[in-house]
Amino acid sequence: MGMEILLRGVALPLIFFGSLAHSDDRFLTDPPDYIKPCKIADKNFIKCSTDSIQQLFDKLNTGIPGLDSIKSFDPFHLNRIKITQGNSQAINLKVELANVKINGFGHTNVLESVVFPKDYSWKTTFMLPVMKLQGDYSLLGRILLIPLNGRGQVFLDADNMTVVMHTKTHLYEKGGFTFYNVTNTRVNFTLEGLKSYFSNLFNGQKQLEDSTNKFFNDNWRMLTDALYTVITQTIEDILLDVLKKIFHYIPANFFVTDIPTPEQLYGKTKEKI
What we know:
Helices cover 24% and strands 42% of the residues. The strands form 2 sheets. Strands 1, 4, 5, 6, 7, 8, 9 and 10 form an 8-stranded antiparallel beta sheet that branches. Strands 2-3 form a two-stranded antiparallel ribbon. The protein is elongated. By secondary structure, the protein is α+β, with helices and mostly antiparallel strands. The chain has one domain (44-263): TULIP domain (Bactericidal permeability-increasing protein, domain 1). Strand 6 (109-115) and strand 7 (122-143) form a beta hairpin.
């Protein structure tokens, strides 16, 4: 599988309020009221952490003061996604999405937030009551044995999507604080329904287009399996982009008050970022 993604705003300079660690890298130096501090040594840490991450997602709806690099969380915009996948009879597909808008992350319901003290990676489970994706598509290949070659607009509407996100981090020090460097996100999901519509699937053959879209909606579980890589890759890159920006701005100490320094965790001094 190959994938190329360009995220809107990645090339913009990061300009934050707070004290300077470097001339172009500002961060919070006082704990904000929208984060609940937790101790990983406490027996109720998971509940505390779950509440804290819920508060963080809620704050993203109105915007985190000083974090100007996240222009919009709901809707979230992607410029372009390219995915090639296929090694089975069910799917052999090249997809390009452009001008993509995703709605739904503003209603994120965090079910559980686990932090592993061995390496401070995370396992976060959350539910999106509705996730809507729309954009321009170009498609070549086969879905559910149906040969497709078209370009037009795509609409995906997922119901009650439960996402399990595994996040890898590397601790680093900046200005006397410990920070998370979010290096990777990997997600799995389940959902309770998927409505879809692809316009111009067959270059203007409306009857064939309508019957194919009906087939996709009647067989939404099979379509979900066929588009699983497309959907997971989209979610992963949205979350990686957002989490990198948040956790370079807000010290990890404000989330986990007893988090170790990089030297304490790794046994030697790591290079500062």
